[in-house]
């Protein structure tokens, strides 16, 4: 029987602390003070009569009991979110909705065409699209704020509790403006002579980029700007001599239009799987299946397989 002393705030605080790996950041996200969130965690641990988290200089670490509790706590939040969504749908005369998270390369390259295709297959459906970095979208997926996420597979630790279905593979490109001086004498080892727009820590492509640069003898890049913002990268790269390291899908349209140019480096080693991610505890709904048909049609037309 569930202990009635456990409240929603206990579950929410615990999950947010685990997500942020920090009591301070979790408190800020929930608009609480750090003492308040510490007290809530202490109350929860007293109720379940075990230590769930160990604090250290790096942040917090889950105990074995904490790992088990986190799995079911995330499922509880996801189920609650689904219930709230269901109520919202009934209030909107039963209109069906699907919330999809899209990493930047997918948001720019696939989703516009998928939205058009889905409008033809299911015109009564309301599609909600949220873009953002891998970690952010995974967190929203786990708590039920998103039904699906499409993007490059992340590191193993970021994929816990998530199923992955491969759609296609995508590589990273080194992008510059038309007329960039490096186009006249392309040499990967010279990229440090210019400012580099670099994938930030936690982004899906960063490990592949770091391995690629090390393998080609590129050392530290002192003048770098880290961001996952496609909107910023497109404008800034066209107006400067910066070199933008980014997934090919993010800039596919700009390359086709000639506004941006990929440097002629062989980046095939950076290819990584792009796929559909969902919570494994939820069965695909009919709307989910229609979305996948629309997605498959678009991928086939783009010849990404």
Would you write up a description of this structure?
- The chain is of the alpha/beta class and 305 residues long.
- It folds into 3 domains: 8-74, Arc Repressor Mutant, subunit A (Orthogonal Bundle); 96-167 and 274-302, D-Maltodextrin-Binding Protein, domain 2; 172-270, Periplasmic binding protein-like II (D-Maltodextrin-Binding Protein, domain 2, 3-Layer(aba) Sandwich).
- 43% of the residues lie in helices and 20% in strands.
- The protein is built from 11 helices and 12 strands.
- A 5-stranded mixed β-sheet has the order 4-3-5-12-6, sandwiched between helices. It has a 5-stranded mixed β-sheet with strand order 9-8-10-7-11. It has a two-stranded antiparallel sheet with strand order 1-2.
- A hairpin with a 2-residue loop joins strand 1 (53-56) and strand 2 (59-62).
- The longest helix has 28 residues, at 64-91.
- The protein is globular.
- 32% of the residues are buried.
Tell me what portion of residues adopts beta-strand conformation: 15-25%
The description of the largest β-sheet is: 5 strands, mixed
Structural class: alpha/beta
Mean pLDDT: 87
The number of helices is: 11
Architecture of the largest domain in CATH?
A: 3-Layer(aba) Sandwich
Name the strands of the widest sheet in spatial order. 4-3-5-12-6
Quaternary structure type: single chain
Radius of gyration: 22 Å
Query: Quick one: CATH class of the largest domain?
Result: Alpha Beta
> What is the distance, rounded to the nearest whole angstrom, between the alpha carbons of the first and last residues?
49 Å
What is the succession of H and E elements?
HHHEEHEHHEHEEEEHEHEHEEH
**What's the domain count?**
3
Q: Compute the number of strand runs.
A: 12
Overall morphology:
globular
CATH fold naming of the largest domain: D-Maltodextrin-Binding Protein, domain 2
Percent helix: 40-55%
Poorly predicted tracts of residues: none
Q: What is the CATH superfamily classification of the largest domain?
A: Periplasmic binding protein-like II
């Amino acid at each position: 029987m569930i202990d009635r002393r456990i409240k929603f705030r206990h579950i929410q605080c615990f999950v947010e602390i685990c997500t942020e790996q920090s009591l301070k950041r979790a408190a800020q996200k929930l608009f609480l003070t750090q003492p308040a969130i510490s007290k809530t965690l202490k109350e929860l641990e007293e109720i379940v009569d075990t230590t769930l988290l160990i604090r250290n200089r790096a942040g917090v670490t889950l105990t074995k009991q904490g790992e088990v509790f986190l799995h079911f706590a995330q499922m509880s939040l996801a189920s609650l979110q689904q219930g709230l969504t269901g109520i919202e749908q009934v209030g909107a005369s039963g209109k069906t909705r699907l919330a999809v998270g899209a990493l930047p390369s997918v948001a720019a390259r696939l989703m516009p065409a998928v939205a058009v295709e889905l409008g033809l297959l299911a015109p009564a459906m309301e599609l909600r699209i949220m873009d953002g970095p891998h970690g952010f979208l995974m967190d929203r997926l786990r708590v039920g704020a998103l039904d699906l996420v499409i993007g490059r597979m992340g590191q193993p630790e970021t994929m816990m509790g998530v199923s992955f279905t491969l759609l296609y593979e995508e590589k990273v490109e080194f992008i510059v403006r038309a007329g960039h001086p490096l186009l006249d004498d392309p040499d990967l080892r010279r990229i440090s002579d210019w400012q580099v727009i670099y994938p930030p820590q936690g982004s899906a492509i960063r490990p592949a980029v770091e391995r690629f640069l090390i393998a080609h003898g590129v050392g530290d890049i002192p003048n770098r700007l880290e961001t996952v913002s496609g909107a910023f990268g497109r404008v800034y790269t066209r107006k400067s001599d910066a070199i933008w390291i980014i997934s090919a899908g993010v800039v596919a349209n700009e390359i086709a239009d000639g506004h941006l140019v990929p440097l002629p480096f062989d980046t095939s080693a950076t290819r990584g799987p792009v796929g559909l991610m969902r919570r494994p505890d939820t069965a695909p709904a009919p709307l989910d299946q229609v979305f996948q048909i629309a997605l498959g049609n678009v991928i086939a037309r783009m010849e990404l397989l």
